[in-house]
Amino acid sequence: MGRIIGLDFGGMTCGVAISDPLLLTAQPIETIRRTHENKLRKTLARIEELIAEYEVEKCVIGLPKKLDGTEGDRVEKTKAFASDVERRTGLEVILWDERLTTVEASRALNAAGLNYEEKSRVVDKLAASLILQNYLDYLSNCAKSGS
Length: 147
What we know:
147 residues, five-stranded mixed beta sheet, 5 strands
């Protein structure tokens, strides 16, 4: 089995993480930045490059539901982005509940003593890593329980 790529899709950024070949751990690799929210061509092209480079077979994208579980405007944009990724890459795309992952990433970066500028450079790729790690843990638990 190939690797899995994890994406944290935001208004102007897309955090990217990649699994190890054994699908045990997720590593943050980069944050793709856009100058306009709806201009995705370069973002999608970069994701395609990373998929080829890391021999990715599946994509997990964080689904930003509200804390009460409802879906807002950001969820609709994320679903449209997921459709674009699926259409362009041919990969299976999993939408994974990402509630609180950005908060968790910010807390970890605060604990590390990073200033605002340093945090803003890494928070999205760290959030992508948390999304992907949660999915990898889910796969591992399913394998252990035989489901």
